[in-house]
UniProtKB/TrEMBL annotation:
It is found in: Cell membrane. Keywords: Cell membrane, Membrane, Transmembrane, Transmembrane helix, Transport. PROSITE patterns: MFS. Its main location: membrane. The keyword Membrane applies. It comes from Sphingosinicella xenopeptidilytica. The keyword Transport applies. Residues 19-406 form the Major facilitator superfamily (MFS) profile domain. This is MFS transporter. Gene3D superfamilies: MFS general substrate transporter like domains. The chain crosses the membrane at residues 53-73, 85-106, 112-136, 148-172, 178-197, 230-249, 261-282, 289-311, 317-340, 352-374, 380-401. Coiled coil: none annotated.
Length: 529
């Protein structure tokens, strides 16, 4: 249990943890402001420019900063104070929203000013998102973490149900400057909670990673962690095609259905309402239905909703379609978010979640531009139809990359590695370091052992190895040596801190092959100075 969760072991759920509850409520308020901005920005762009590409670019510049900055933000969140980083990001968002409100009120907002301001707001969101997701395990205990992740998604969709409809009404009554000003005010709630949060100081035995080293370590983890890689592949398959509905909706509302800003907001509100219904159903559904099955059903529903929106001839029908789309969206989003959280240990959690957000927003950005360009060359209905068909085809990914179900793998540090035996402790920057582990196995079982060892190589690479191999003694069958190289002695010390309880179980499986009265021999070899 984390320090923030101490003393609340008997908590009924994540909202019983005071800091999580306060931050959850504040982010719902802030997200309402964000959705109001999205409605105002999308609607204002349809007034400033008739180009479908520029309208779709509003969605693209909202998500592009996440694609560009999610990974650097995740690396910073794993090496800096997360509370201070969140405060800085929220202040940036407050400033951008306030400046846009003033410029729009003065009539100085052009299509490119609107895109630029929305881009800066996207930067603030990109700096915040990995940190917000990474601090959740600090605010609740392990048992309630999946429910907390789902509750965060529910909060996003509660705001989606309220924000667009409210934004549309405010645009209709007071104009877009009022929406942008209220978005700025909504950030104050999050700032207030963050200023009052006394985050416990974390003691580290090792010095913090450098920025570029942290980036490399995060990349290695994402590349060599099969559970996280699975989530990323599934995210690409869903969000590239799912982005079409978001990007084309302003055009469907204004040109296809002849709605005003309030009507457009109501359509987004229908999607948010569907997501809230879906989130409430998911809590029970996850106990009975496998996560992969939920993801398949969600994809089918969202594909049908995208195809149906292309044929929508009335606002009532479009509202029903968006209700179904919201239910499907929350089903897929929660399934992927929970899987990404469970696939990453604490030392790299912000970076792992940043990779997920990078793929998510990159797919949304690229997809928005793709479907906007396609609609400009053909029409909106064609773009939506092709996106719906593509999403149906992406269901094949669920056959080969199945989302995991059941209990979470224990990724807490196990500290089961013995301290290295050295004559004199090397300097931290001394390297590279070659670690050799010598096993003695029954020659008849050597092929089986080597196959198991090769599967285990991903753990070494994931935690810092830049090279890995296995060798068998030609003169003594059954004498097998595993060797892996890390960049420095300090990086190898970090490996010791990164191994998990799940790794310990796998290591014990390997050690069961070892014969002899003594454990496998471990050697640490340094390149001569």
């Amino acid at each position: 249990m984390t320090p923030a969760a101490a003393g609340v072991a008997k908590a009924a759920g994540p909202l019983s943890f005071p800091v999580f509850r306060a931050l959850w409520i504040a982010t719902v308020v802030s997200n309402v402001g964000t959705w109001m901005h999205d409605v105002g920005a999308g609607w204002l762009m349809t007034s400033l420019s008739p180009s479908p590409l520029l309208v779709a670019m509003v969605q693209a510049v909202t998500t592009l900063p996440m694609f560009l900055l999610a990974l650097p933000s995740g690396a910073l969140a794993d090496i800096l104070d997360r509370r201070r980083m969140l405060l800085a990001a929220q202040l940036l968002g407050l400033t951008a929203a306030a400046v846009l409100a003033v410029l729009t009120w003065q009539g100085l907002t052009t299509p490119y000013v609107l895109l630029a301001a929305t881009f800066v707001l996207g930067i603030a969101a990109a700096l915040s998102a990995p940190v917000f997701q990474a601090i959740v395990p600090e605010l609740v205990d392990t048992k309630t973490l999946p429910e907390a992740v789902a509750l965060n998604s529910l909060g996003v969709n509660i705001s989606r149900a309220i924000g667009p409809a409210l934004g549309g009404v405010i645009v209709a009554l007071a104009g877009t400057p009022a929406v942008f000003a209220l978005n700025a005010l909504s950030v104050v709630a999050v700032l207030f909670v963050l200023l009052r949060w006394q985050r416990p100081a974390t003691a580290h035995a090792l010095p913090p990673e450098h920025f570029f080293g942290a980036l490399k370590a995060g990349y290695r983890y994402a590349r060599h962690a099969p559970a996280l890689r699975l989530v990323l592949i599934r995210a690409v398959g869903f969000f590239v095609f799912g982005s079409a509905l978001w990007a084309m909706l302003p055009l469907v509302a204004r040109r296809g259905l002849g709605l005003d800003a309030a009507g457009y907001g109501a359509l987004l509100g229908c999607m948010g309402a569907g997501a809230v219904i879906g989130a409430l159903l998911l809590k029970r559904l996850r106990k009975r239905v496998a996560a992969n099955t939920i993801s398949i059903g969600a994809t089918v529903l969202f594909a049908l909703a995208t195809l149906s929106l292309a044929l929508a001839g009335s606002a009532v029908f479009a509202g029903a379609v968006m209700l179904v789309a919201g239910l499907a969206w929350i089903g897929m989003l929660t399934s992927l978010n929970v899987a990404a959280q469970m696939a990453s240990p604490g030392w790299v959690k912000a970076r792992a979640l940043a990779f997920y957000l990078l793929v998510f927003q990159g797919a949304m950005t690229g997809g928005s531009v793709l479907w906007g360009a396609l609609a400009a060359r053909t029409d909106v209905a064609t773009a939506l139809t092709l996106a719906g068909i593509g999403q149906g085809a992406a269901l094949l990914l669920a056959i080969f990359w199945r989302l995991p179900s059941g209990g979470a793998v224990d990724l807490a540090p196990s500290n089961h590695w013995a301290e290295p035996v050295v004559a004199v402790p090397p300097a931290g920057d001394r390297g590279p370091v070659l670690i050799e582990i010598e096993y003695r196995v029954d020659p008849a079982r050597a092929p089986e052992f080597i196959a198991a060892l090769r599967r285990f190589s991903t753990v070494r690479r994931r935690d810092g190895a830049i090279r890995w191999d296995v060798w068998e003694d030609a003169a003594e069958p059954g004498r097998v040596t595993e060797g892996f190289v890390v960049e420095s002695w300090l990086e190898h010390q970090r490996q010791h801190a990164r191994v998990t309880h799940a790794d310990r179980i796998d290591q014990e499986t390997l050690n069961a092959f070892h014969i002899g009265d003594t454990p496998p021999v471990v050697r640490h070899l340094l390149r001569p100075a």
